[in-house]
Design goal:
Elements (H helix, E strand, L loop, with lengths): L18 H27 L8 E3 L5 E4 L4 E6 L3 E7 L4 E7 L17 H16 L6 E6 L14 H15 L3 E7 L5 E6 L5 E5 L4 E3 L1
Parallel strand pairs: 1-3, 6-7
Antiparallel strand pairs: 2-5, 3-8, 4-5, 4-6, 8-9, 9-10
Length: 209
């Protein structure tokens, strides 16, 4: 007569683990920790590069900052005036449109004119940097965007550059780098974190000064 499988007693099979295998199992947590440490150290050493925030500066505008961001603008005959304090990591950008102002407009839009933009921007940067602020300047732009004036040294772009240089000298601010002239537009990126001025030309060329 066949026996019902359900009624059969449960059979348990026990296997003896050799002593050397037991020791290997006991050492396993230490081995995992040992192998995990280099990976953890490697990850800790990685520097994650997050996108830098960009803040646009409009025509005739002045903006200053003490955070590691980029001030960006586009210039043709206009000039991007960048002042930087490497000690306090702060700086600013003025989008200069014309070389000089009239007395009537002197205080209304100081960023528009070279002779007022330099002292106005310097004062704004010193307010966030402190009395011990040491400023240096970089400029870019001043192109002659009208082909029929390419041989004229007195076009507005050239006048803007000359006026800014004169104003920097009057305000005792050292000009450390420039990318001016030509007959092409420029996109300007001024990195407040390190003072680097990146210039992207309309022909695709990229410069850093």
């Amino acid at each position: 007569m066949a026996t019902n499988v359900v009624d059969q007693p449960e059979i348990k099979v026990e296997t003896t683990v050799p002593l050397n295998n037991v020791k290997e199992l006991q050492r396993l947590p230490d081995q995992l920790i040992t192998h995990a440490q280099p990976a953890t150290t490697h990850l800790a050493g990685l520097q994650v590069q997050l996108p830098i925030q960009e803040v646009r500066v409009a025509m005739a505008e002045i903006k200053v900052e003490n955070k590691p961001i980029k001030l960006v603008t586009n210039v043709g005959s206009c000039v991007a005036l960048c002042l930087y304090d490497p000690i306090h990591k702060c700086g600013g950008l003025a989008h200069v449109m014309l070389p000089s102002t009239t007395r009537k407009l002197q205080n209304s839009v100081p960023g528009k004119f070279a002779d007022t933009a330099v002292p106005a921007l310097a004062e704004a940067v010193r307010k966030i940097g402190g009395k011990e602020t040491v400023l240096s300047a970089k400029i870019a732009g001043g192109a002659c965007i009208l082909p029929n004036l390419s041989n004229n040294d007195q076009h507005v772009g050239r006048k803007n550059v000359d006026a800014i240089k004169a104003a920097l000298k009057d305000n005792r601010i050292r000009l450390v780098a420039e990318d001016v002239g030509g007959s092409y537009g420029r996109k300007i990126e001024f990195n407040i974190g390190n003072g680097t001025l990146t210039i992207r030309l309309s022909n695709g060329e990229i410069k850093e000064i």
